[in-house]
Amino acid sequence: MNENIPVHVGIIMDGNGRWATERNLPRTMGHKNGVKTLKKLCSHVFKRGVKVLSVYAFSTENFKRETSEVQFLMDLFVDSFYNEFLFLKENNVKVIFSGRREPLPASVLKSMDKLVDETKDMTGPIFNICLNYGGQDEIVDMVKKISLLVKDDVLQIDDITKDLVNSNLYQELPPLDFVIRTSGEQRISNFMPYQSAYAEYYFPKVYFPDFSEKEFDIAIEEFQKRNRRFGGNSK
Ligand code: FPP
Questions:
Q1: 169 in a structural domain
Q2: How many domains does the chain have?
Q3: CB under 8 Å to 122, separation ≥6 — which residues?
Q4: How confident is the model at residue 2 (pLDDT cuts 50, 70, 90)?
Q5: Ligand 1 atom 8: the closest Cα is on which residue?
Q6: Which atom in ligand 1 lies closest to the alpha carbon of residue 84?
Q7: Is 28 among the domain residues?
Q8: Strand, coil or helix: 193
């Protein structure tokens, strides 16, 4: 068996709305079924040996959606973090978040903080939830943090390296090896651009609620066929 399992996998969970619309259901039902899919997927992904899973739950741009959909998603996050994701602790998974806290409602922040606190001592895989996240904002925030350190003489310009940049992002994580975007759209929409410099991309046609454990295994088989060169010669 090919044991080449990506260390860090990213999933852009796209197509919830279309999944629901095709079934004559309100878009919100797509998101609800997305949570069910994500729960099943999480257990499976970590069982397969992935060490870090990053998911795109809500982009900074998603605030432009209809107020009722944004409100539904916020409530869904609160319910998921208090109730649905507790199984992660039983599986020794540590939950972290990436993104800006402003302007998330206090109720959402509270549920995020509780989940982080409850899993902070877990020693197993990491589940990184990108919520109110934008990749360009993350780079802007990193530049501001480092600039302040230089201004205060804590750092010199020559201390700025790729590792230093990486450790001043929202979370210090290994690079993304594999990024999956469901629903057939072939773009990355501001998802972890610094971390995915050498990632392999995969764009299955299925909508996220239908992205099963089997679909994930097919994606891994595709990853294992890729010849990653990191700018060097092909083998
Ligand atoms: C994209 O589908 C999906 C989202 C903006 C929300 C993702 C959220 C979930 C899967 C809920 C579970 C997540 C957590 C962390 C509890 P879309 O609405 O853009 O679909 P469309 O492109 O078909 O309209």
A1: no
A2: 1
A3: 88, 89, 92, 93, 94
A4: low
A5: 57
A6: 16
A7: yes
A8: coil
91 is catalytic: no
Residue 165 lies in a domain: no
Closest atom, ligand 1, to C-alpha of 77 = 16
Residue 80 Cβ < 6 Å to ligand 1: yes
- Nearest-atom number in ligand 1 for the CA of 59 is 5
**Alpha-helical regions (H) of the chain:** 16-21, 27-47, 67-79, 87-90, 106-119, 135-151, 162-167, 213-225
In a domain? residue 219: yes
CA–CA dist 25, 207 (Å, integer): 15
> Is 62 annotated in the active site?
yes
How does pLDDT run across 22-56, given as a tens digit for each residue? Answer: 999 999 999 999 999 999 999 999 999 999 999 99
Residue type, 81: F
Please give the residue range of the domain that contains residue 55: 8-134+175-224
Q: Residue 14 C-alpha to ligand 1 middle, in angstroms? A: 6
Cβ neighbours of residue 188 under 8 Å, at least 6 residues apart? 12, 179, 181, 196, 201
Tell me whether residue 5 is exposed, middle or buried, using C-beta atoms within 10 angstroms of its C-beta: 0 to 12, 13 to 18, 19 or more.
middle
Q: Is 134 in the pocket of ligand 1 (CB under 6 A)?
A: no
Q: Is 15 in the pocket of ligand 1 (CB under 6 A)?
A: yes
Token readout for 188 is 């990355």
Percentage, residues of the chain above pLDDT 70: 98
3-state SS assignment for residue 20: helix
Looking at ligand 1, which residue's alpha carbon is closest to its atom 3?
14
- CATH number for the domain spanning 48: value is 3.40.1180.10
For residue 129 and ligand 1, the question of a CB distance below 6 A is answered with yes
